[in-house]
Structures are given as C-alpha cells and as structure tokens.
Amino acid sequence: MEHVAAAARTAPPPAVPTSVRSRNDLTVFFRRVLNTRGASFGLAVTALMIVLAVLADVVAPYSPADQDYDSILQSPSVAHWMGTDNLGRDNLSRIIFGSRVSIQAGVVAVSIAVTIGTLLGVAAGYWRGWTDDVLMRLCDALWSFPAIILALFIAAALGPGLVNAMIAIGIVFIPVIARLVRGSAMSIREREFVLAAKVLGAADVRIMLSHVLPNVLAPVIVQGSLLIAYAIIVEATLSFLGLGVQPPEPSWGSMLKAAAQYMQVAPWLSFFPGVAIFVTVLGLNLLGDGLRRALDPRLRGRGEA
Amino acid sequence: MQAIPTLLLVTLVTFSITMLLPGDPALAFLGEAQAMDKVAYNAMRQELGLDQPIPVQYVLWLNRAVHGDLGTSIRTREPVVEAIRNRFPITLQLTAVAMAIALLVALPVGIISAVRPNSWLDSIGTLLAMSGQAVPSFWFGIMLIVVFALWLGWLPPSGYTSPTVSLSTNLSMMLLPALALGVEQAAVVMRQVRSALIDVLHQEYVTTAWAKGLSERAVVNRHALKNALIPVVTIIGLQTGRLFGGAVVVETIFAMPGLGRLAADSIFFRDFPSLQGVVLVLALAVFFSNLLTDALYSYLDPRIRYA
User: Given an 8 Å threshold on Cβ–Cβ distance, is A158 in contact with B20?
Assistant: First the structure.
C-alpha cells in the first residue's frame, strides 16, 4: 500500500479527469488503455481469472474436496497437471477454486475501502475545516501502521475467517482512498459549476453527491484496481498465517500454509498457488497501470512505467 | 504541529483494537482453574485495571506505555518491552540488509532504464519491476528455501545466529530472508528511480549540460542523478512500513526470532499484550521514519524549504 500511497502523497493532486461520458469518448479511452504497454496482457489475465473463478465447477478437472488416498503427494502428471496434496486432492482444481476466494477477497475489501474512503474524502475535501483536520489526522494515524500488521491486528480482533479478513483489509485501505479523493474534491469545490449549484441553493450533501462525487471517481477506479492486486496479496498473507480462510476451503494463502510442511517432498504444492497469486496480481497491476496512464495526460506517451 | 495528535491517535487506535480482541486477559493470566476462585479473579482484574471504565483504562495504559511499561506477556510472563528490545535489532538488521540488496539491484537497473527509455534493456527492467511487485514475499521466500537450501544446499534454510557469535553465519542466514523481503523493494525503488530520472532528464538545466558538450556519464551522474534521487529517498523512507509488514511473514517462514515473528506468534498463542506492544512499537517506528523522511526531503531539496 505504501508505494501507491506514497505516490498519492508526493504527487500533486491529480488533474481533474476528463469525463468519459459519450460512447465515442469511451471507445477512445479503451483504445488508449489497450495501447499502453502490457495493459492488454493485464486485461486478458484478469478476464481469464474471472472466467476461471466463475466457471470453476465446469473448468476444474476434479472437485477441490475429492480425496484420493491412492494418489497422495504425487508430482505433476497427465492426470494431475499440478500434482496432488497430502490428502490426494488435485492441486490444479484447488487452485482454480481458490481463485474465487482471492478475487472475492480483493473485490470486497477494496469495495469497503472505496465506499467509506470516498465518502470520507469528499466530506474532508469539500467541508475542509475541522472535519478535514480530524479525518486526515485519523488517516495519518492509520497510515503509520504497516498495512499487513494492521490487517493482522484487526483480523485477530475480529477472529479468523474470510469475511473478517476482508473487513480488516478494507479498513486498512480506507486512508489511501480517502486521501486521494480529498485531493480531487478540494480542487473541484473551487470550480464554477459547484459555485453555480451553491448559488442555486443546493444543500452541501446534494452538491457533494451529485457534483463532486462523480468527478472524483476516475482516479479512484485506477487506485482501486491497483489496491485489489495488493488486497489479494494481503489476504493470502493472512490466510498463510492462519487468520483468513480456514481449511478445508481452498484458498491460495491457506494452500501455501498447508504446503509449507511438504516443502521438501512436494515442492509443487508450494510452487503453483504462488504462481497463481503472482500472475493474478501482475495482471491487475498492468491493467491498473494502463488505466492510470490513459486517464493521466501527463503520463501519456512517455513510456512511463 | 500535527505530529502530536497523530501520535495520540496511533496509541488510541492500538488501544481500541486491543479492546476488541477476544478473551479475558485476567482469565488468561490466571488460567481456567485459578480463575474459578472469585477473589483471585477479582484481584487480578483490579491489578490489570480491568475494573476501571474504558477511557480510564486507556489513560492508565498510555501512562504506563510512556514510562516504558507495555505489560507482561501472557505466554512467557516476561515484560513485553524486554521481548521487543531483544528482538527489534534482528528485524532492523533484516530490513536493512533487504533494503541494501534492493538498492544494489534497483539503482543500476533504474538508471539504465531511464537513460535508454523504451529500449530492450528498459523493457527488461520494467518487466522485472512489474514482476517484483507482484511476487508475494512469503512465497518467494519458500521458493528460495526450496532451491537454495533444500536442493542446492548452499545456504541454511532457516534460523538465526547473532552477528556477535559469528558474523559469517549471521550473514549467510540473513541472505535468503533479506532477498525475499528485498525483491518488492527493489521493484518499487527501480520504478521510482526510472521515472524520477526521466523527469529530471527532461529539464532545461540538463539540456544546458548537454549543450556544454559534457559526456553522458557527466550529465547523468553529476547533474541529473543528484536531483532524481531526492524523491527516491522519500520512497525509501516511506517503504519502512512495507518492510516491517513483510518481516512478519518472512521471519515466520525463516524461523527468525524478530519482531515480526513475535507478532505472528502472539496472534497464534493469543498473547495479546505482546501483540499490542509489537504493533504499537512498529507503528511508532513507521511514524517517526515518515517524519524523518519529510525532514530529510526538505533538507535535500532547498526548493521545498524556500518555496
């Protein structure tokens, strides 16, 4: 989180995004995204992962819970492409089903952060004054905690389980979104259309929701896609430490935890779930980067990584 | 001064989450059998201050924390401060070595990428950076153990030896975990070096340097790099939190008795005074390192001071 956060902190407030309303603009926008290096690869990987997660029942060669005691800890073969675990379960099928947990964890955690963070950020940036002071000091405070440690701490307080892990990660990410939105909201509140709405007698809440909010969302979407990638790593970390998904439900983190005992005899059990995390996170990062560059005219055409 | 309220909020957040942790500390200290004794149980609650209202408990806790008392570990019965003092140097060494490895890789690759943007070298650099950011450090650690310790047998798979006992053993045990922890940092720093240097290379004073007929080496090393490294220093400072977070899992995998391992163990054994202490100390470390980074930033870049 810190590097995205740091970027948000050191960079000047993002330029007010050109709104992409008409269909034509959207086409141009998507072409721009796909033209950036790696973004099409990122989109393809992300799409593939979503399809695998949705169609897990159809795609997976075995049930993730099927135990076959005749083929325990087998190395990768034609029957089991990624080998089998200590209970004779098919590693590939468990990884495919595990994608559901990872994607769900990433999306839900970031949705929590985006919903709360955006509202807080708009309120802080629009109202300024003591609301801003209090919210931003709180963000600073939350920011002082290393992300993984705060997530661990909150997850420990809430108790193990996927839902609690998602809530914990969501809370940890709130400051990132809140700060980002605050910066945009502060510049938008000075714009003429906001003044016009104020002169017309619109209430603060109305201005915030129907004028400020739509104009701060673009950078949030970019940051969100990058945060989903990081959320997937944090969820895997929590599950690896025993605080996230509980066995026997397959998740990449909990599979790595179980596999650690068999490092020597069955390294493939440790290898493949990590590759799954790596590929998914890489895809999301590339996609997020493409979105960022397409939205930020300063980065366009500079081959900025 | 915004630092003081933030600092207080850090302690308040730590205290509040601890309040949510499941379980009764008095019960945990006494054990089930002794807790049956109502008198002993109430005495213990009183001793731990649990009979006070929660705001009072916070003030009492904060007062003790300021005086260097973070309570007693439920598991080992040793003072939490003592455990942290013994383990913090290990985590600091691990994170420092990790950062050193990261800089060793990231600076040259980042500079080459920036000087030759969009070349094949740059493409490889970018690919490395994107990959480094996508690798979960704990998985990378496991893979390093499998390859370098189990298969090749070059390095010990886990453990820790103090540098005062044997420096070479210490470093050989430190290498794999530091690599696992450093790969992500290398990626972050690499990207930052590249983009900062590209920015600077587009500035007019660099054009002037070229126009004077200076060699590429002189332009990049003497003129551009100095300014490009300022934001890099900031990023390195702001990465402290990421490093400490990564240390939790990496120390767990490599069985290193550092602070991260203490945090993971405290969760596993429900040793909440220890957990609270570690979280507070790490948050304070990150807080002060951010503060220091800000100060360093304006020291290195006079434009910030005089703006």
Answer: yes
